[in-house]
Amino acid sequence: MITKYCLWATSAMVLLVIQPEPSESAHILAVHPYASHSHNNLYGPIIKALTRRGHTFTVITSQPVNSPPSNYKQINTSNIFEDHHKVFNSMDKDMGVLRLFAKVMHMTDDICRKTLFHPEVQKLIHPSKSSERFDLILMTNFFGECLYGFSHVYKVPMILLSPAGPFPTTYSAIGTIVLPSAVANPVMGFDDRMTFWQRIINSLSTIGFTVFYKGFVLPNMYSIMKEAFGEDIPDIKELEKYISLAMVNHHFSLNGAHPLGPNLIEIGGIHVNPPKNLPKDLQDFMNGAGEDGVIYFSMGSILRSANFPLETRNAFIAAFSELKQRVLWKWEGENPLPGQTNNVRLEKWLPQQDLLAHPNVKIFITHGGLNSFQEAATRGVPLIGIPFFADQIGNVQRAMNLKVAVKLDCKNLTKLNILNAINEILNDPSYSINMKNIQSIIADQRDHPLDRAVYWIEYVLRNKGAKHLRPAAADLKWYQLYMVDIFFVMIVIPNLALICIGYIILKFIKKRCQSKKKTEDSSKKEQ
Ligand SMILES: *[C@@H]1O[C@H](CO)[C@@H](O)[C@H](O)[C@H]1NC(C)=O
Ligand SMILES: *[C@@H]1O[C@H](CO)[C@@H](O)[C@H](O)[C@H]1NC(C)=O
């Protein structure tokens, strides 16, 4: 398995080298003011690879890099994003849909406004004659519509980058037809093969989200965009015509088979690199676990385990104290913890990808973030998922459907439940076998996701926006696309006409009968 992985990784690197040289180096504007650390796992490798190939960048980003290369200019908006980041940092277990929607509205409003009125960004919105020009825009597909105005200012194509996988609005922007009867909304936690009731709930939630987004979020974004770019900026539906491609952080090997037009490119796993050697002391800790193995525990970069309630923390410590296995816990708080046993080791930061590649790792306890799920699958490690919100719920459900994970309810983290979940995976080899199968499917790709991303971005540059990739579906109105108008003309109108004709005939017959009766009656009277 490992050799197979290495082979794939080396051939991926070879491919990167033998890709045709770009004919001209382009000047690219990248806009991702919502980037958290995990989102940057998508943007970072792409921008790095393109700068290495000689393209120059201007980047509006909440994740600025230290000491950027000379062909990389950045506008640092990290302070704008930071306040909102904290909102999601809180472990709010019972955030209702309405409160979540309100938070999303508030976040998009604030970030759009502050980003667009940032003095450096204003210079890009109102370029002077001597200002730099751009050839392409890499645009976030995470509440980024208020920023689409750049494509109109510079009259250049846009490529959407979607770090959280595709949204329903991603599909509609690029004309991919996806029906809620066959594709589960990621936050609902259903499998794509749904029962009748699940299809009802999935349809209602997908339509509900779309109506909320198009009815409330987008009009608000558009009004902010008009303030920033001027009254004559076209509406968002019109600006969507600048979109050449969408690149999404999904791959069918892990996320399932979904409709893919030529303008939807899956680049899931782009951030996963061939494993590097671990630091010596960590390597010794892993090796020292022997046959029993190691349980790796991390709740990701946003959701910090230090925010766990005390009783939850104690439940984990109590459960771990009864294990033969060693436990490596990414923990940002006090160290050591009261009651912590010798088999447990706490670290503020850990090289997760490299660690998961160690053969002694038996289980990864995770919040179910997309990047963590991809890393675990690429390394073949089964999961215990503790999802809190958003796509984590869907990722963990997906992993359970694939039988590579056990779920723990974040509201019910008791010692007994934690131990049961661990023992379930340790005692049933099918979890590990299933994940190893997925690992080999992921490894069996013609090209590395990063090569794929670079190829398609340069394809758009070479082909002047590659307008030929855009399906007609992208420019139809919803009632045209879903054939409501055709249904109306072909079914509703003829049926109405039939009913009318039937009614008139009935009336006519009735009248004839009545008048006949009348003549009969009157003739009777006369007799
Ligand atoms: C970006 O801005 C923040 C806050 O203004 C600052 O703390 C940080 O050092 C800056 N980062 C870089 C790389 O310039
Ligand atoms: C918590 O987990 C236990 C054991 O699995 C279960 O019996 C109980 O119903 C759960 N409680 C809640 C509130 O979900």
From TrEMBL:
Q: Which UniProt keywords apply?
A: Glycosyltransferase, Membrane, Signal, Transferase, Transmembrane, Transmembrane helix
UniProt cross-references to CDD domains, sorted A to Z: GT1_Gtf-like
Signal sequence annotation: 1-25
Record-linked SUPFAM superfamilies: UDP-Glycosyltransferase/glycogen phosphorylase
Q: Name one Pfam family in it.
A: UDPGT
The record's listing under InterPro entries reads: UDP-glycosyltransferase (IPR050271), UDP_glucos_trans (IPR002213)
Q: Does the keyword tRNA-binding apply?
A: no
User: What one GO molecular function would you report for this record?
Assistant: UDP-glycosyltransferase activity
Q: Which residue windows are transmembrane per the record?
A: 486-509
List the PANTHER family. EG:EG0003.4 PROTEIN-RELATED
Query: Member of which family?
Result: Belongs to the UDP-glycosyltransferase family.
Q: What is this protein called?
A: UDP-glycosyltransferase
High-level lineage: Eukaryota, Metazoa, Ecdysozoa, Arthropoda, Hexapoda
- The gene is UGT
